[in-house]
Amino acid sequence: SGTVLLQVRVAPLGLDKLLVLAEDRTEARRVEAIRRDFVVNVSHELKTPVGAIALLAETVQDAADDPVAVRRFTERMLAESQRLSALVHEIIELSRLQVAGALQAVRPVPVRDVVDEAVDRARTTAAGKNITITIGGSVDSVVFGDHNLLVTAVRNLLDNAVSYSGPNTRVGVGVHERGGLVEIDVVDQGIGISTEEQQRVFERFYRVDPARSRDTGGTGLGLSIVKHVAADHGGDVRVWSEPGKGSTFTLRIPAADLPVHDRSASSSES
Ligand code: ADP
Residue 260: is it exposed, middle or buried by C-beta count within 10 angstroms (0-12/13-18/19+)? Predict the structure, then answer.
């Protein structure tokens, strides 16, 4: 009956309009399916830490007169609730990106500021594993967009680089401008990703090794957030990787085409 309704509605329209309407319906169905998938995944992912916390709480009640056990189980409860909180934060972030689509306030953003802030925040975790983060490349690239979202994207790539690398390794961030695109490379010497997995790591909740990802506090949402931020800025994100050697994630955003006098003004100041 849906088809009949469609025919009746489009009868007075031309063939081109009919095709547009049909496409709209396919697109609407696709979006609806993605949304439904997301809700199912979210419920599943939330149930795991919530269930773990409940179980740990019961265990603590049973072990109330054993202070060592109480300490151990409450520490695990704390870890699980931190994971839960990170997960909720990322789900909200991703839903906002999915719903809003377009950026709210777009302004010229110096890429170096984004990289500096993201690296600053990642340094503490990196220091714990004695991983050095270095910054290289051209310094004066500018893109149009949202500073905070771009920091989140670079930060997610850096957090992964640190999480999936061994101690005493190096992580490099490079900024280059090529063919009108600003490329931000995050290079690590970590465990790497096989060719088959490379296709999938940008999917929501996808993890190569769920157990390891859980240990590192991973949610499986980091790279899909990066993908959305890139797309919202008219760019993309790619990966090169060799298992056992390391990975390079490249975020590419169109360079801001600032008027020539702006560029010379900013470079003569420095
Ligand atoms: P997570 O929160 O699990 O890190 P992400 O979406 O950020 O989720 O990444 C998805 C998966 O991709 C990770 O679970 C991990 O298996 C793999 N991955 C991401 N970045 C790297 C990297 N730099 N090196 C190796 N594997 C990575």
Answer: exposed
